Amino acid sequence: MSDSLPPMSAPSIPQPPQPTQPDGKAVAALVLGLCSMFLWLCPLIGVIVAINGFVLGIISRERQRSKMAMAGIILSLIGGIASVLNMIIGAYLGATGQHPVINAMQQG
Q1: Regarding predicted confidence, which is higher, 52 or 65?
Q2: How many other C-beta atoms are found inside a 10 Å radius of the C-beta of residue 85?
């Protein structure tokens, strides 16, 4: 009769959910987004950094819904738009002869 009883086990204690490690691409997107916020002053470099941050953020966002990836996407967009605007304004000023750096180089 004792052979038919199931073995006794300890009651299971629910474990708290483990925090997920952020994806490396999400961290890279955030870092590149932050860098693009400063590199808009060098428009060509700023656009390249912003595009890379945006792409890595999109890839990371598709894999896991990460707030870090979303922040990287937003910062990259802002930095990229600022870089493009800086390029447009610089090209316009240079084409119309109003750019102070070009004028100083031509005079001196």
Answers
A1: 52
A2: 12
**Whole-structure pTM value:** 0.73
Cα distance between residue 96 and residue 81, in whole Å: 23
Both structure tokens of 32: 């590149």
Distance CA 26, CA 70 (A): 8
In angstroms, how far is the first alpha carbon of the chain from the final one?
107
Do the Cβ atoms of 92 and 48 come closer than 8 Å? no
Chain centroid to CA 52: how far? Answer: 8
Helices (H), the chain: 24-38, 43-63, 67-96, 100-107
